[in-house]
Amino acid sequence: MRAHQKRRAATRAGERRIRLLRIRALLAGGLVLGTGATSTLASWNDAEYANGTFTAARFGIEGSLDGTNYSKHASTGAAALSFSPAVTGLFPGGTSYAAFAVRATTGSVAGHVQVSAGTATGGLSDLRYGVRTVSSMGQCSAAGYAGGGAVIPDGSTLGTSAAGSQTLAADRTPVYYCFALSLPVGASNGMQGLAIAQTWQLVATSG
């Protein structure tokens, strides 16, 4: 082979080696780029939010002596029950009645109310009483009381509290209580001229 032909063949062989090296370099770079692209992919994300504002309810009761005018009565300013006949002249076998209405205050939730008796003070220890619910203030009489719902059994001592409670509606529908006080027929002569004082508490709970 002539010298110039040998040089041309060597040149072509060198060019082929260079092309192979370039192709390998590109392939290697492609593998690196492919791996890098896979490892750097990002996820899309989104979110929703919710909140609330919370306010506690109110609960309260108020009482009335006439079924029309209602107000709050504290222990130091208890409502004075008006008995008929008057309880300033009690005698054995006689019974006097007095009404008291209770309802939820404006904006109050529903609840329950229970009659609780404090400790009586005075010497007229033979005095007995009972409490019933009636349909209205005007039904607090001998006839209305007889058909009422039992709250405290007749013939109870003044310190007796109710065993159960009555429902108070949130719409302010009243509960009408009728108190019946009497001296038993067998009350002793020693009760003459004596007096006794009693305070009741209407204990209300919500729910």
Architecture overview:
The protein has 207 residues and is of the alpha+beta class. 20% of the residues lie in helices and 29% in strands. It is built from two helices and ten strands. The protein has helices spanning 3-39, 142-146; strands at residues 61-64, 95-104, 111-117, 121-122, 128-134, 149-157, 166-168, 175-182, 196-197, 200-206. Strands 1-2-8-5-6 form a five-stranded antiparallel beta sheet. A three-stranded antiparallel beta sheet has the order 7-3-10, with no helix packed on it. A two-stranded antiparallel ribbon has the order 4-9. The longest helix has 37 residues, at 3-39. The N and C termini lie far apart (116 Å).
Measured by DSSP, the beta-strand proportion falls in 25-35%
The succession of helices and strands, N to C, reads HEEEEEHEEEEE
Using only CA atoms, what is the Rg?
47 Å
Largest sheet: 5 strands, antiparallel
Average per-residue pLDDT, rounded, comes to 89
Descriptive tags:
2 helices, 5-stranded antiparallel beta sheet, alpha+beta, 20% helix, 207 residues, 3-stranded antiparallel beta sheet
Secondary structure layout:
Blueprint: H1 3-39, E1 61-64, E2 95-104, E3 111-117, E4 121-122, E5 128-134, H2 142-146, E6 149-157, E7 166-168, E8 175-182, E9 196-197, E10 200-206
Antiparallel strand pairs: 1-2, 2-8, 3-7, 3-10, 4-9, 5-6, 5-8
Structure at a glance:
The chain is α+β, with helices and mostly antiparallel strands and 207 residues long. The chain has 2 helices and 10 strands; from the N terminus they run αβββββαβββββ.
